[in-house]
Structure formats: C-alpha cells, structure tokens
Specification:
Elements: H1 3-29, H2 46-52, H3 55-87, H4 92-107, H5 110-128, H6 136-161, H7 164-172, H8 177-206, H9 209-214, H10 222-229, H11 236-273
Helix pairs in contact: 1-11, 2-11, 3-6, 3-8, 4-6, 6-8, 7-8, 8-11
Length: 274
C-alpha cells in the first residue's frame, strides 16, 4: 500500500467521522438514563416515551409530514409535466433559457427566497383584504416552488434516455398521445419520478429558513418548533426525535438507491438485447 493511498483512506475516514459523528452522539444520548446532554448515565427509552406523549411536538411532526407529502405529490406531478415539456422543446436557445430559469431557485440563497415570498404573500393578502395571510397555503406554495427544480432535474435525464421511436411507433399503431405516454414513456421514467418525489419529500422535512418566513401562527412545522426550543434547554427527547427522523430518511435513501439500481440494470439488459 502506497503512502498516497493511505492518506486517501485516512482523508475519507476523517470525512465520514466529521459527517456522522454528531448523529451517532445524538443516537447514543437519545437512550440516556438522565436528562443530561453531555454525560451518559444508564440506558433508558423514557425519552422516546416522553416524545410520543408530547402533544405539541407530535402536532408539529404531523404538520411537517402532511406538508411534505402534499407538497411532494404536487411538485412531482408538476415537475414531471414540466420536464416533459422542456424535453419536447425543439429550439436549443429556448430550452437553455428555460433550464436557466429552472436552476435559479436552487442557486438562490434560501433567506432571499423566504423573505421575497413572505413579502409577496403579504402584499397579495393585503390586496385581497385578508388579515391572516400566512398559513398552510402559503408555506405549501413556498415548498412546491423550491422542490420543482429537483423533480425536473431528476426526470429529465430519464426522458433523454428514452427512445422516442417507441413512443412514435405506439402512436402509429393507433394509440392516443396521452395513452402512449403512460404505456410507453411513463414506465421508463418512473425511477426518475420516484427519485424526484423522495428528494422533494426530504427537502420539505428539512427546510427551516423558507418555512420560517412563510408560515403563520396557526401552522407550525417541526424545524420551527425545534428552533423555538433552542431558546431554552433542549432535552434528550429531541435527540430521540432526531434519531427517528434520521432512520426514516436513511430508509428512504436506501429505497431510492435500490430503485435506481434496478432501473439501471433493466436499461443495461435492454441495450444488450437490442
């Protein structure tokens, strides 16, 4: 083993330790027997029990999951339709301009997006004569807006890999365009759609800055609830919640990789058979 390879392995190990050591500490202290956040004393699951009996936290978690599911579904449908439309554009300049506009929400700082959306919603609410402008509707629109580019970029590569001749052949055989799309194109781009949906779901769960500026007093998400708790002492029940959320996201990522691997395997087999 050369010195360069040893240094490379050491570098990779340090990167993994830096990334995952905080999460490991959180998991360990979620089973702490006391309420200390830095001294481990015994093993207990009481913080998980206390977590599930905390109505405020559970309500915030329910709001977060509902928001993530609804926004992911809407952004997946809209993003898939947008990707199909972008892929069908003939002129390269127009397609390049549309892709540039699509990428802006990802490049734009979240605090700028959050503040600008808050001002837009308040301005629109004043025009409509509404006092309580911010709420579930505004935060839902905000989440859909920053999830769309990720869905589009997940579906577009699958569309480019699709053989257009198969879609055209289905139409020549008498299949209507919509039916031909769902029977021929949709199964081939389904892994990209699933990847985009999972990405949108995880982004919604994780978002704090945009949610902070666009939510109202009647609707509180989990990240905002946890942020409000940082003004006081954070107890290990939040460690338990973080552990459960990490496990859920980890399982989703594994499922996404499995779907992606199966899709790539099918494409390789199809190319070999041709």
């Amino acid at each position: 083993m050369t010195k360069t390879s040893r240094l490379a392995k050491l570098y990779i190990a340090l990167i993994f330790i830096f990334l995952y050591a905080p999460m490991v500490v959180t998991m360990v202290f979620s089973f702490n027997g006391t309420d200390s956040t830095y001294i481990m004393n015994g093993f207990s699951t009481r913080w998980y029990t206390k977590l599930f009996h905390d109505s405020v936290t559970m309500n915030a978690l329910e709001n977060t999951v509902i928001l993530a599911v609804v926004s992911a579904l809407i952004s997946t449908v809209m993003g898939t339709m947008a990707a199909v439309g972008i892929d069908s554009l003939k002129k390269k300049r127009i397609k390049s301009a549309v892709m540039t506009v699509t990428n802006i929400p990802m490049m734009n700082p979240e605090i700028v997006t959050g503040i600008s959306m808050m001002l837009l919603f308040v301005f629109a609410g004043r025009l409509l004569g509404q006092k309580d402008t911010l709420g579930f509707g505004t935060i839902l629109i905000a989440h859909i807006s920053f999830q769309l580019p990720y869905v589009i970029l997940s579906v577009l590569p699958k569309l480019r890999q699709t053989d257009r001749r198969i879609y055209e052949a289905a139409q020549d055989l008498g299949c209507p365009p919509v039916q031909a799309f769902f029977k021929v194109v949709f199964p081939q781009i389904l892994p990209g759609i699933i990847s985009g949906a999972i990405m949108a779901f995880t982004l919604s769960l994780d978002d704090f800055i945009i949610s902070y500026f666009t939510n109202g007093p009647s609707f509180q998400t989990l990240p905002i609830h946890i942020f409000s708790m940082t003004k006081k002492r954070v107890k290990p029940d939040m460690y338990a919640l973080s552990t459960l959320m990490f496990a859920a996201i980890f399982i989703l990522l594994i499922l996404m990789n499995i779907v992606q691997a199966k899709s790539d395997k099918k494409q390789r087999k199809a190319k070999e058979e041709m």
